[in-house]
Amino acid sequence: VDLPWPDCALVIVPGAVPRLLVHRDLSFWERVPEPDWEHFGDHFHVIELADVEEALKREIAAAARGRVAFVAEDRRRAAAWGFGDGDVNPAGLVGALDRLRTLKTLYEVACLAEANRRAARGHRAVAAAFQNEEAPSELHLHLLYLSATLQDDVETPYKNIVALGGNAAILHHVHYGREAPRVGRSLLLDAGAVCRGYASDVTRTYADEGSPGGRAFADLIARTERMQQALCARVRVGTPYEDLHDEAHGMVAKILREMGISSLSEDELVARNVTRKFFPHGLGHSLGLQTHDVGCLAKAPRPENPWLRNTSVIAPAQVFTIEPGIYFIDALLGELGASPQGPSIDWKLVDALRPFGGIRIEDDLVVLEPSGRGPVVRNLTREALGAK
Ligand SMILES: [Mn+2]
Predict the structure, then answer these.
(1) Residue 301: CB partners within 8 Å, gap ≥ 6?
(2) Torsion angle, alpha carbons of 328, 330, 331, 333, to 10
């Protein structure tokens, strides 16, 4: 339900049509947007109330003889309504709801596909501006993205990451520069859109090949792009997602070696944690009503993968991102330089690439029912944005 009103309640009793208690805010200071009742109203018994609080008290009193669970963020109010601590967000129920949310219905997939089409308009507009305009600033590209996707800043599923040059090494760069950087003609754009509450999460990286150091960085982008596509093709029902994350480190090692960034073997690059200095974040996460959706992190990742947000076993109807990256992050390169692996690094090459910041390529995938033949995943991002 895409219902942007505060203080509403959904009352679910087994065997009955769910009742949606809503309160229309009559403040003269602001007006909340009217929900799309036509879209979901048929599925609920919608009851408009002047005082949801009083209605809830009656509901709770009526239900008090049975088993009751209260699912919400505000524990203080739950206590005020007489819920015991054990009735508020019970782990068994919330866990089951979270698990349900990892598997998307056809309706949800349609929303996620539309969210990708909306994001694609912004990505195309920003890519064209980066290629054709004279030194566009991050702020300019951010505003262009909002305009092209018809989204206000607060409506995007997450704050756009618009990073030129060295700023692409800041994984969540959201303080947009007003001027273009003088060196490092690269752009990392991580930006999505929303359709009926469902988010897309898309990242692309571009470079000006003609700029100093640009050719090597463009080569690195092309290799990261191929790695990302290879990882998408490795998705299999029944495979733990963390295995894909581990494979990504093997692929990063191959790139570091082939580019001549390190002279160590691929196995050493992974075993001695060199790849983790260049690819410090997780390979991806579940996607849905939340950009980092719930339910796919039921168990903790292994200690060497602290930022991985998906440790589920891949299953049909899951929707998740595949977003490998390679970055030149000063703090992590400093650690690498001080480590026994430091002398294996071609620092001249690293310093030439550093002004470009880093690379991330991110698509949103739906896992399909295995058929023995045909594709295993549907790539919502590539459908919308094109192959490259
Ligand atoms: Mn993401």
Answers:
(1) 242, 245, 282, 307, 308, 311
(2) 60
**C-alpha 321 – ligand 1 centre gap (Å):** 6
- 360 CA to middle of ligand 1, Å? 10
Q: What is the tens place of the pLDDT at every residue in 151-193?
A: 999 999 999 999 999 999 999 999 999 999 888 899 999 999 9
What is the Å distance from ligand 1's center to 154 Cα? 18
Q: Pick the more confident residue, 60 or 248.
A: 248
Q: Which residues contact 64 (CB under 8 A, 6 or more apart)?
A: 82
Q: Is the pLDDT of residue 261 over 70?
A: yes
Report the distance separating Cα 164 and Cα 162, nearest Å: 7
- Phi/psi of residue 46, nearest 5 degrees: -85, 125
What lies within 8 Å, CB to CB, of 304 at 6+ separation is 273, 276
**pLDDT tens digit sequence for 357-366:** 999 999 999 9
Distance (Å, rounded) from C-alpha 30 to C-alpha 190? 32
